[in-house]
Amino acid sequence: MKKIVSLILTAILLTTSFQVFASEIPETVEISFKVGDSVLSINGQLVEVKAPCVVGEGTTLVPLRVITEAFGCKVDWDDATQGITITYPDVTIKMQIGNINVTVNDHTETLLAAPVLDVDTTMVPLRFISETFGADVGYDDATGQITVTKTTTAEGSTITGITDKSRIGDSYYGWSMDTPTFSMTDRDFDGSYTDFSNDEMFLTVFAYPLDAEVTFDSYFADIKSSYEGYTLTRADKLTDEFGNRYMYFSGKDKEHSIDIVSYFTKKYNFELALTIDLTSEKTAEYRTLIDSFKCTYGDASATYDLSNVASDGTRTYTNKEYNYSLSLPATWDDDNDCPGNEMYFSNAMPDNEFFSTITMNIYSKNAELTAETLAKSDYAHNTAFLNTKVTTVSEVQEYAVNSTINGYAYSIKTKSELTRGTSFTDIFFEYSDYVYNISFTLDEDEKESIIKTVLDSLKVEKIDFDTVGIMLRNDPETDITVPVKVGSGTFNLNGSWEVVDSDANVTILMHRNTGSILTIGVTQDIDTSGTTEANYLKKAFDASVESISAKRYIEIVEKTKSFTSNKFKFFTATYLSTESENSAIYSIVCSGIVKGDLYAVSLTCGEKYYSNAIREELMTVINSLSVK
Amino acid sequence: MKKKVATLLLSATLLLQIPVFANHTVTVNGEPISSDSVMINDRIYVPLRAVSESMGAQVSWDDSTQTASIEFDEDMQTHKMIEQASKSVVAIVGNYKPEYMSQQALSYNESYAHGTGVIIKNNGLILTNAHVVENIENITVIFGNGECYPATLQCMDKTSDLATVKINKLGLTPIKFAAKDDIKVGISVVAIGAPLSLSMINSASKGIISGKNVSLSGSAYYFTQSDVAINGGNSGGPLLNMKGELVGINSVKFAGIGIEGMSFSIPVDTVTYVLNQFETNKRVIMPTIPATVTESWEARLGVPTTKGLTVKTSSVSQLTSGDVIIAVNGVEVHTIADCNEALKNTYSGGNISLTFTRNATLFTIDVAPVLK
Q: Which residues of B touch A476 (CB under 8 A)?
């Protein structure tokens, strides 16, 4: 499902029409100068202009010419109103000399300082215009240097213009196509997508392992229905020269045509999503390109290899900002959406249902945060609630990360008949002023040797404090009281419980340590006439136990018994659910009547955390109930 | 002869009753109107359009019938405000990272997380709650007209529950920010978002501000309380006044700590503080006092009190257990949120001053804060 959504979203990504600015708009913009300079560096050239100045409370004004030379935008000047209209792809700015109000497209904004006419030079605010045009503005406090940068190509491994070989491809996945004449603008770390575009089209080539649950025909139906709202002109099922089935869709709306081609080979799914502006005159040429796609790498000497997989079957991940690199087996991918100092890598197991993950977190070292103290406190946090029957723990000890780095590590292994096993290894070391925490959470089918592969390849270099600054680990406060009101009662929980959902009668919380779910519900003002409260409670509890345990995957592991909390009687029982083949879940349910209201508190946790400690935590929750 | 002169003199005096301009001002809701008013015979005549428009009414003139029409319709005003503001409101979706999809948590979350965001810069910078984007990958931003854009996470602060993401689109309409003092109890506010599913993108709910500077046990900063309906889907979205200005960012994260019918939003001054920190430091570096404290029981109950905060443990030698802190950087504090707010508003680097009582004596010390 995830793959279809990303496919469709990519295809409909460019929904605004492309404006023809083509050759005049530079892809990369760079302006560099100090206030007062009259020679500025603009896109690599030195240009002489009237010197930029600072007005008001620190707004830098530059001659309009700096903006037009750098960004390639169009400018119109109205003598009568002293109005300036600046046109750039997707944005039009209308300004006026002396006026702090500007119009951007169809809305107004306020400047910190108005444009100024200095004799015959129009001076305009640099930051506002640059940022509106998608550039970043930086100021170096120490040197006074101002830099404006914009790169239209995404970060990562990109090439503008490819090679002089006639074909390009990926030797790891095994695909190739004719070399496009336009730029490759983005490619994912694990090569699962490659983007190409120019100002009138956008092409993405996807490659990912087959999902056993998705059949050719069901996928065909899904893609077809995603074309709803478009005019579908082609929807074919075909077979290629190698015997691979593929589907070819063509559709269009008022502005674009969208083609989706999807190949099902023995190992992989290859997909091409092509979006073309309807005004293009090269539609046939783009379609010929995707027709040249083959599910084979072909002749190595004539094909340019986009793959970053080395001969030992690994890819090297390099993080320039935090100055480290490590190698991962080819099936691993990084995550584009992490904050830089908390990186995350994952590997899907062949059936796509289970994952292994590696995280790399970096924090500033200080008196309270060293490799040893962090290892010990994380150890305490992660082992507090473990079910000792299914977990084996090795305590914090000194650990040789590789031949040059030493640190500390502990591990937790889970093995049981009812729950899929995992092994968790948490490693901590220090380098220069920072503490590094690399952790491996491996599925039972993952080879343990991957830990050595990654750690042996790990290269760490000094982090530039000026670029990165202080990185703090913001663990939520658990030493606080969180009052949770349910009905007319209040449970005073500790901060390790986080509210996930709530309405008037039910509140659901998640335990930060264990991921366990606490459900607290209340039925107010119950009618116990004709019987005692205790009898009513027992009857209601027994009835619910009976109905739940009727399900074939539910087993009662602790029979109903009673206990007292704050002088009120409660009943409790525990079930085991094996509904999920790979994850046994325990539910401890408790019910009691307090001042006329029936409270139902249940704690649901995985087998890994079903322990005396979690039971005690549940009792603490129930004992914290106060009703006015 | 006398009569004639008298009449003549009288008419001359009458003619001298020329209109007097601008020695007086006319204000509507505290704001002076844009055009001059005129005083004739001790009566102030005001220009129709200037006064009506400043009250939010619409004025039109029909030349053929020489009629001026004034239209004031609160519903239309609300409708127009929502229509305009919706241009700046987006839905945010993504799928949960596999490591966060514990079997149990799965049943309470769709495999697609979603919340709301609001555009704060015309080049694609969007503000939302930290909890909306925290554990998801493939973040996608969806506009009310269905346009989708991939987004990258920029900065995040879990303490205030705010985060920024960026899309590659220029020329967007950013939301305008209200001033801190614009948050007044009783004014009408509207929350815009995608409440239960993406088919309800940019649906709106309206209420009033029920309380300001509300502190909730367990949360760092003050909140604005309102009776607008806020839930998982429109969390991260804007709370707007009737001018369409941002007075807060809605967060469902704090809902469980209150009662039904009470919604909490992060006030605009906390939002501005966090955004400034994101711009200079890429994260929020939060100054805290170098001690753990407990609040008085009145403060814990939410009752107004003059009692301070009792020190439990301290990491500086000048403070010991039992001292009662009553002011931070000159600002009186009675709750932990008061402390955080005081530092948020006054800290600009260096040491902080703490005023406390010990054995009925008042002390003021200068100490280094702990930066989190």
A: 158
Interface residue B111 vs chain A (CB under 8 A)? yes
Helix (H, G, I), strand (E, B) or coil at A41: strand
Question: Does the active-site annotation cover B226?
Answer: no
C-alpha separations of A408 from A53, A119, A283, A393 in Å: 54, 68, 59, 15
End-to-end CA distance of chain B: 95
Residues of B in contact with A517 (CB under 8 A): 104-105, 108
Q: What is the pLDDT of residue B259?
A: 60
Query: Is residue A85 within 8 angstroms of chain B, CB to CB?
Result: no
Measure the CA–CA gap between B68 and B70, rounded to whole angstroms: 7
Q: What is the mean pLDDT of residues B229-233?
A: 79
Q: How far, CA to CA in Å, does B37 sit from each of B16, B25, B68?
A: 19, 7, 18
- Residues B180-218 have pLDDT tens digits of 998 999 999 999 986 555 565 668 899 999 999 988 767
Please give the angle made by the CA atoms of A143, A145 and A149, to the nearest 5 degrees.
145
Q: At what angle do helices A216-226 and A2-11 cross, to 10 degrees?
A: 40
- Contact of A343 with chain B, judged by CB distance below 8 Å, is answered with no
Give per-residue burial for B147-179: e unless 16+ CB within 10 Å, then b. bbbbbebbbbbbbbbbbbbbbebbbbbbbbbbe
Residue B250 pLDDT exceeds 90: yes
What size, in residues, is chain A? 628
pLDDT value at residue A2: 41
Beta strand spans in A105-162 (E): 107-110, 116-118, 121-125, 136-139, 145-151
Q: Which of A606-620, B159-173, B287-301 has the lowest mean pLDDT?
A: B287-301
Indicate which residue of B88, B114, B161, B226 is catalytic: B161
> Has the ipTM of the complex gone over 0.85?
no
**Tens-digit pLDDT profile for residues A412-466:** 999 998 888 999 999 999 998 899 999 999 998 898 999 999 999 999 998 887 7
How far, in Å, CA of A180 to CA of A569, rounded?
A: 75
If contacts are CB pairs under 8 Å, which of residues 495-554 in chain A contact chain B? 495, 499-504, 507-510, 515-517
pLDDT range class, residue B11, cuts 50, 70, 90? very low
pLDDT at position B325 over 70? yes
| Comparison of pLDDT for A229 and A605, the residue scoring more | A605
The DSSP letter of residue A294 is: B
Instruction: Look up residue A550 and give its DSSP letter.
Output: T
Distance CA A335, CA B95 (A): 12
Taking the CB of residue B368, how many other CB atoms lie within 10 A of it? Answer: 12
Taking only residues 220 to 249 of chain A, the set having a beta carbon closer than 8 angstroms to any beta carbon of chain B reads none
Chain A contacts in chain B segment 164-223 (CB below 8 A): 168-171, 173-174, 217-218
Maximum pairwise Cα distance, chain A: 96
> B-chain residues within 8 Å CB-CB of A504?
260
Q: Considering only residues 357 to 396 of chain A, which have any Cβ-Cβ distance to chain B shorter than 8 Å?
A: 357
- Give the model's pLDDT for residue A122: 93
CB neighbours of residue A164 within 10 Å: 7
* pTM for the full predicted model: 0.62
In the sheet that A481-486 helps form, which strands lie side by side, from edge to edge?
A481-486, A489-494, A625-627
- The token pair at B259 is 């009662």
